[in-house]
Protein: phosphoglycerate mutase (2,3-diphosphoglycerate-independent)
Amino acid sequence: MGSSGFNWKLADHPKLPKGKTVGLIVLDGWGEANPDQYNCIHVAETPVMDSFKKGAPERWRLVRAHGTAVGLPTEDDMGNSEVGHNALGAGRIFAQGAKLVDSALETGKLYEGEGFKYIKESFPTNTLHLIGLLSDGGVHSRLDQLLLLVKGASERGAKRIRVHILTDGRDVLDGSSVGFAETLENYLAELREKGVDAQIASGGGRMYVTMDRYENDWGVVKRGWDAQVLGEAPHKFRNAVEAIKTLRQEPNTSDQYLPPFVIVDENGKPVGPIVDGDAVVTFNFRADRMVMIAKALEYADFDKFDRVRFPKIRYAGMLQYDGELKLPSKYLVEPPEIDRTSGEYLTYNGVRTFACSETVKFGHVTFFWNGNRSGYFNPQMEEYVEIPSDSGITFNVQPKMKAVEIAEKARDAILSKKFEQVRVNLPNSDMVGHTGDIDATVVACKAADEAVKIIIDAIEQVGGIYVVTADHGNAEDMVKRNKKGQPLLDKNGNIQILTSHTLQPVPIAIGGPGLAPGVQFRKDVPNGGLANVAATVMNLHGFEAPADYETTLIEVVDN
Structure:
């Protein structure tokens, strides 16, 4: 990046002053839905967020945070924190994850790229291993893409294919893993009839095997490594469907937390350990839960757990999962080129920036906000602070998380008057919402609201402006529903808990003593989404947004 020859100068806004402190708060997983007992935001005491909604109607509205509004293929695609923060920071909509993979598979471009050519070198003599989430959830991966990739590889010389599955139950219904495994098994059986030795080799639940993130618990990755690479697991089965059905009977087991298993042949030998010369693809398109396994597969120098053996493999990700670490170095699908983010523009235009969250969302308010780019644009102008998240517990145990600590860091940054933008992410409603614990999620929402108050109070003191929004929904609907919107019950008559994100819009509120009179939300951007927030924030800093940014949500009317 950098300023080489590019004109970063933004035009001054004709009506809005420069130099105000803008407090920019992203509530993670905070959507807007009908009030009922499964809407934890409604149930929780949230006087601050309520006051925005009940206050000046021209200073509160909803924006879209899912589907095409954040670059995902369809309106059935839930938003997530990565694409949400990309849109919030970039001010434009870029094709994301699933969409990039869809088009690379559809055009065949995937098979012409460097990444595929690299793994293909293993096909004549060795095995192709595919590791990833077996699900049609569309958040981390999609089953249809896996099937297309298996098909494409088998048509291009892969004679021996092993799939290492991770069961979902988080972005999709618990129990749906059985059906996904049957679909995959049936397809691999068809390939075997055509002479391709294709089978499932291992498995486990996504929250217990392989798919940890942010170095929270390397034990999760080790359990995956042992099953996938070493062919060792406490449970051995002849086929995956039987494995899942059997293991689901155990107490405290769900798709998310299925223990690791390996598939063995009639002699009890694992059918698919990873050995020297093999090719490995991690087929998830979403990065956050692939970075750790990518490090284990790629780094010769690795000390997070004892790998026992480190096979010489050809490894590629579906995408590159970390642009700064260049990890993995080989990947099948090119990333969206996100350039000229709002953060970079504002830095070049003299806006000093402070960003803060706790570990689980720190990357969102920095790396993803800045267009999948690590580090500072200008260390003289920016300060990023990460507060360590609780580790070794599930977030419903401590639902207040680090909300107060984040808010206090933001408050101090605001009161120091060193910064014109103070940006935070409050993770509570998302991280606790994912646990499915309704009571804890209510506590989480209250904690986030209290944190907002600490930040808003500081903005009041310095005569600043606040912008409060969210990246996608989660805590506002904690139950699965039928087409009529009624809660779904399981066979015992209990409600089916919804642990995933949602398709709901999210609020955005503006205010504060520094907000110029006459600033209000426009009525002519009814379908505004997260990508419209960047231009809005630029305006509040006293600048016009670049011409190709999604339009601002605000106007200044002369009283």
